[in-house]
Amino acid sequence: MNNLCADIGYQSLIKYKEQLCGDHVDVIEQGDDSTVIVLADGLGSGVKASILSTLTSKIISTMIAEGLTIEECVSTVAATLPVCSVRGVAYSTFTIMRLINNEEAEIFQYDNPHVILLRDGRHYEFPKTEMLIDGKTVYRSRIMLKENDIFIAMSDGCIHAGVGSALNFGWERKNIIEYMETLYDVGFTAKTLATILLEECNKLYGNKPGDDTTVCVVRIRKREPMNLLFGPPSNRDDCNKMMGLFFSKEGKHIICGGTTSTIAAEYLGKKVKPHIEFIDPEVPPIAEIEGVDLVTEGVITINKVVKYAEDYLAENKDYKNWSYKRDGASLICRLLFEEATDINFFVGRAMNPAHQNPDLPINFNIKMQLVEELSKSLRKMGKRIKVSYF
């Protein structure tokens, strides 16, 4: 077993003046290291296309996850979905990626723009085999995965972007390849790469998409552990135990909270060196402790991180802020969203007297709720999360 994992991110634009997206992406986990990803593009747009793509992706991803063949999946979809009276076609187009033990990718493509693979910073043309299923040509590929591989799947809204306006023939696949190659070495997450590509498509459409447009990016990377300490233990006698466990863990170490950082500094025999600069007026300044990767304030900073995490899972508009700013919340976001794959939370249950003031909107329950919300969001990002309470 290798030490690789898949960072998966996707996002869609809805066709101008429509309420629902006619594209749909489904991701189904098969154990810890195998995943099925389906991107379906329903015929037409609006409600009908949304239903077609949702059913297609649900049926295919579920059947493949249960071990059925692609032939059985396609035949089932063709028999299940209604036939379009205009086009005479029974189901939407689709792209299927199955990651097997994070060692190999199996890709099936039917009528969507072909998947782009960036390897070692350049476009890599992988082999495809034609399969004829129920009269439809499906392309099948098997590829051994390599660290830093980036797969880009998309609906045809991407290559139609700018047709007849910004570009005569739309944003051709070769142009998309050239554009994404420039982002290969930046280190963006899969979700951010998908967001950037989609934003460019939206610009070419003049912010009025002429078609539903979806991008799904899969980034193959090494597992990266991360550890976050938040709050002192409820029993003072457990301080050394908590700190010992925290600092014994592999990976970077983040400490959140004034009292918590003081206890950690005492444990390490070091001093807390506070910064006084407010980079973001909504986020308290950070501090430094020798031997610790990041030291921040507690509840207010984590609350900001939770909001960034919720946006990341939705439209991901705030990445323009946290991806470069140097305040505590932004620095935590970059470590947790971009770097970490496996995150250990060490959460102290001690009551902070400063938080018991009824005039302050902070209490013990809110602190626990923040941990729960952040853990939930990080799991949705595909992170492995372990929370230990003290």
The span between the termini is: 33 Å
Widest sheet: strand ordering: 2-3-4-5-9-8
What is the level 1 CATH name of the largest domain?
A: Alpha Beta
What is the CA-atom radius of gyration, in angstroms?
24 Å
CATH-level-2 architecture of the largest domain: 4-Layer Sandwich
What does this protein structure show overall?
This protein is α+β, with helices and mostly antiparallel strands and 390 residues long. A hairpin with a 2-residue loop joins strand 8 (129-133) and strand 9. 32% of the residues lie in helices and 27% in strands. The two termini are 33 Å apart. The mean pLDDT is 91.
Secondary structure layout:
Blueprint: E1 4-13, E2 23-30, E3 34-41, H1 46-65, H2 70-80, E4 93-100, E5 104-110, E6 116-119, E7 122-123, E8 129-133, E9 136-144, E10 150-154, H3 173-181, H4 190-204, E11 213-222, E12 225-230, H5 239-248, E13 252-256, H6 258-268, E14 273-274, E15 287-288, E16 294-296, H7 299-313, H8 319-322, H9 328-339, E17 342-347, H10 364-380, E18 384-389
Parallel strand pairs: 12-13, 12-17, 13-16, 17-18
Antiparallel strand pairs: 1-11, 2-3, 3-4, 4-5, 5-9, 6-7, 6-10, 8-9, 10-11, 14-15
Helix pairs in contact: 1-2, 7-9, 7-10
